[in-house]
Input
Amino acid sequence: MTMKFFKYHALGNDYIVLDPEEFADDLTEEHIRKICHRNYGIGSDGILYGQMETDKANFELRIFNPDGSEAEKSGNGLRIFARYLWDRKLVGTNEFSILTTGGKVSAQVHENGRKVTVEMGQVSFDGTKIPVAGPPREVINEKMEIDGEMIEFSAATIGNPHCVILQNDLSEALARKLGPKIETAPRFPNRTNVQFMKVIDRNNIRIEIWERGAGYTLASGSSSSAAAAVARRLDMCDSNINVHMPGGQIKIVISDNFAITMTGPVTKVAEGTITKEMFG
Output
């Protein structure tokens, strides 16, 4: 038996889309690990498992990391899923809603599927919502010790947790070295995504990303949203921010109450079938 898959990337952050109605078995952690594996599977930064009908939104989406864990929300994943719905002729140019475990968002497809805008929801810096251990407070400009070094950070949630660290010298090596240690630091009970951020000017920031459950990532929509919101909260940027990442650029617009509108590209890579033999 074979199961159909669709693969897309958003600025190098690649996802496989599976329709639960077409996938022959319940999607297990072992299935996810095999499908996402770069050598033994198709290879991806995660799986988008959706198209399920719901009375709360037009579509419902579950997002899985390559280690089998479930993510509450993914900006790039949401844009890719919107493009997939467009390709399947399930949506047109009008706005539609998608329900994730991290909340409901609205999306709209532009430029014949090549660009997607997502209303990502409202960012919160509340430590009880993110969550971050300790008393209730906004987690802004706090300090923690990693590898004997004191690091200043701010934390945020847009349905999933983020830790943003201001850094003048950004590099992949830095993200790979400190990212996993910060992701699993005890102060983040649900683990966290990590962004190392440099503010270029009032409308531009650059980030390197370590993604919870996925590792080093070329681009991330929710990371872009959280980093931009922190830059705005610290009054280092205005409300229109271009987020530059190794994979490319995403445009973020921040409202007065820190609601995020994200716009970025999506590219279709392939579609095909998964064989049962792969899981043997």
